[in-house]
Design goal:
With about 450 residues, the chain is mostly beta strands. It has one helix spanning about 1-30; strands at about 45-50, 60-65, 70-75, 75-85, 90-95, 100, 105-110, 115-125, 130-140, 140-150, 150-155, 165-170, 175-185, 185-195, 195-200, 210-215, 220-225, 230-235, 245-250, 255-265, 270-280, 285-295, 300-310, 315-320, 325-330, 335-340, 345-350, 360-365, 370-375, 380-385, 390-395, 400-410, 410-420, 425-430, 445-450, 450-460. The chain folds into two domains: about 45-125; about 130-460, Methylamine Dehydrogenase, Chain H (7 Propeller). It is built from one helix and 36 strands. The strands form nine sheets. It has a five-stranded mixed β-sheet with strand order 3-1-8-5-6, with no helix packed on it. It has a four-stranded antiparallel β-sheet with strand order 11-10-9-36, with no helix packed on it. Strands 12-13-14-15 form a four-stranded antiparallel β-sheet, with no helix packed on it.
Length: about 450
Amino acid sequence: MKNTKQRTTFLGNRAAVLTLAASLVIMGLFTACPNSAGGGGTTPLTKYKVTLEPASDGTVTVNPALPSDGMVAENTEITFTASPHAGYKLQKWELNGQTVNGTAPTYKLKVTQNAQVKVSFELLSGTPSVYLAGSITTGGNPKPHYWKNGTKHELPMDSGMTRGYAYSVTLKDGKAYSAGLQQAFGASTAIVWEGNTPYWKSPEQYTIANAILTEGASLYIAGKLKKDGAWEASVADITDKNAVNIAHLRTSTGTETESEAYALCSSPSALYAVGTIFNSSSSQTKGALWTIDKALDEASRTETVLATGSSVHPKAVCFLDSAVYAAGRNAAGNAAVWKVTGTSADVTATVLGTSGSSEANAACTKDGLVFIGGRNDSSKPCVWKGTDSSFTAIKLSTESGTVNALYAFGNDIYAAGFLYTGGGRKAAYWKFTSAIASASDADITVLPDADSEAYGIVVTME
């Protein structure tokens, strides 16, 4: 009995200990939750509404992204980054109507109340400088050139190279960068010039740099480059010319023998390129839109087929809101534009020209409109403006010619190409606003150089 009593006492003490421990745990739980309500629930997380007013003449990125209802948890830190459009500068930041943050491009906000953020941009003052990239033909051979405000500069090529083109031009850190190719005996090599000096050259033949783009601190080119033993449509980051990062936009499969990218643009989150997928059966050649992230991770790339046919040739791309517009020639060989929207990559095609003389070579956006540059059915330089599937053709000259490039800067749009004047072909550029309705609304500058053509344009305030 003594042992039984001792055991019973032990069990009783154990039960008391467990009861006390449970009580302490329960008390601890309530003590550790200062937001707890008396009924055992928790107080809802405090949130405030944060709104960003739409900005004109620039874009603003938000990290982390604002939820659709704008409700953000208290003490969340949000980073706003402002990027003015070409020809504009950041004027001011406002928080709930009060000026804050000066003109710094980045604004960090800790959410402690309802917040309305606004960014304003203003037009740069002064006379802009116009850079063109192109070629001048001498003795039957085109030579790469760029022009600054009409003054030409021949771009050097390697010894033995007899032909060359500068297809595109951009500006970075106050310097002009032109991209194109140099060629001998039919074999081309992609090359980029910094001012008048070669900056980077592909170590491989049969390569081309068709487009060049400055995006933030990075310098990208698009074209056809070799990687892992294959030549494909590619984007490359050449910011560090000694450590170039090449990404193929696709991999050839089956009878699809090769591909090439002709144009490049960006959105806040990705790069977009358009080009052609060549097939051993020409009737199955495809026009394509590719996307890839800015780190050029090939795992992020996507491909959307725009059209199929031997004449399909996309040559330009631009981004407006959540849609991508690609322009070029359709299966019938006529100027066309494709609008690509949605995660399912819905494609809407719009015919711009009705004859094989028409071309769509360039694209840009301005004031909520898309502008496509090229030539009309009568081989006259032309721009089409509109959105969705509605575009209006505006002839820029009564003389024959072509628009090869477009660039929006400040309140204006600049177009570059060539005109046939006095029996010869001469590089030219136009300036007009988004309200253009006829050739009389555009200012034109024709360069004096015979047998010249401009393929790229960029404008800056220096």
